[in-house]
Amino acid sequence: MCVCVFFLLVRPPPVLCVDLSLYLSSRSFQAIVELCYTDTDRFRPTSAYLTRGYYFERRLHCIHMEIKGANEERQLPLLLISQKEKQFFYNILDNRFHTINIPELRNKYILTSAFGWLILVDINTEDCYLWNPVSLDKIELPELTCPLTYNKCHLSKPPTEPDCHILFIAGNGLSRHFCQIGDDQFVTQTTTDNVGCLSAVASFQGKIYGIVISHFVYQFVTANFVGGTLELNPILIEGGLPWGMPQPSRPWTQMHVDYLIESSCGELLLVHKMFRCIHLEVGLEFRVFRVDVDQMECKELENIGEQAIFISDDGEAFCCSSLGVKPNSIYFTVPESRNLYIYDLNDRSTSASLPCSIARRSMIESYWVPPQIFRNFLN
């Protein structure tokens, strides 16, 4: 059945008709109607938009975001808790975990997931390769020395496409190994603190961007694979100076992790995860920035709206919204901990929960993964 929703304007009176039946279940459609018509909804009273003269535009945005949110609700990342031979998948929405034994993930570390592929490292042999959980295809990589010392990994594009490169970044950001898929060996680049370490990297709007730290200066760069080299080119602002990014303020400067994440709204976010001490669960704080690569502006966000950010030490990072998820929050895990933490950007508080009570305390690794790539195992 075709369902249409009409919104009337005070001046002039054009009509918006959206065929929601193409997108939504009845439950999601009901949620949208309630959100758009209730005066106490999260978009503030509708009368405010009428008096400000942009009711129609904001309601368009409301419909667009809720349709998108309903489509993405099933795409909310799952927390994969891995312990050698067993894997536990935790779903935030129903607060349940499922125990699944996936042979290909036994005794493996997941360095990241991208384009439907996992980059895996065998704990025993240290073999490194790509694996697709849907097609079950496997792509071997050249031998990589001490792959477990690399905590960041990036695929430039789907590995089945030509000219795809894979990049491994060491924990200190100073050592980088990369190759084109199909090459028989990695190229190694090692730099020093004076030249700068690569602390974060992400693909956004067809380009690869990164954060390079040099002498406590954060530079926003583009990354390009040219021949057998990786070129990190600073983006220059007016006057020919490198475009600098905000830095973690003291006393956070000594221990921090950086993330570049594309949000569900199509924005590029820079996230600083900062620590006061060596205990990763104590004295932790986050700062979030929106990076506008067109206007070359970086603005700190006190509020990310209905979205939530999902990060872990390894694996893919996400930023999306869904009913049932705490908005304006950061969901994160820490190494060797069974807990799932939620950092509230409103009051800067942190809460903890235990997503999987049967997971052991030792040899535990947690990753955020897109659920669609594990559909063959979760059905």
Automatic annotation (TrEMBL):
Residues 89-344 form the KIB1-4 beta-propeller domain. Residues 1-17 form the signal peptide. Transmembrane segments: none annotated. Keywords: Signal. It comes from Buddleja alternifolia. This is KIB1-4 beta-propeller domain-containing protein. Pfam families: Beta-prop_KIB1-4 (PF03478).
